[in-house]
Here is the input.
Amino acid sequence: MGWLFGFNSPSEIRRDLNSQRTSTKLLAQKATAYGRHLWSVYETPAGERFINLDLIERGHDGVWGYKSMSEDMGPCTYDCPLDLLDLAGETTNEYVKKWRESVRAHHASKSRKFVPGQLVSLYGKIYRIEDTVKRSYMVRQIENGRSYRMTPKCFAAAQPV
Here is the structure.
């Protein structure tokens, strides 16, 4: 499914989404990414639960729109709140299982704390953390001795050595 535009605000989109989904029961809903990712857990009449993502964007003309996809359609974003994963329960769909594992890994990487002096592996290279500056890390590559400043987003893939 593509994008559907024609709304005046994100709240208007939420009202429209919640009113049109009558065949499923909304169990929980949370927004992430500054309200641009609307995550929901629904239950079908058969009792099956699933996670849905509504991407919300503002078009060039100032009109708001959204794109819906359920977890089995392959959202390529992993900021789904962990409590919604728990609420959705177990699944037999292998693709959904892998996606949920990626969501948990995303949250785990965000909660890791590194300390000065620690060695980390990142993109096949070994770095020593020299210092933290604001939310970034000052690191020195072991191989060539060069220093770099890395943002948390860049550092998300770092693994302790």
Summary: Helices lie at 10-20, 82-88, 94-111, 152-155.
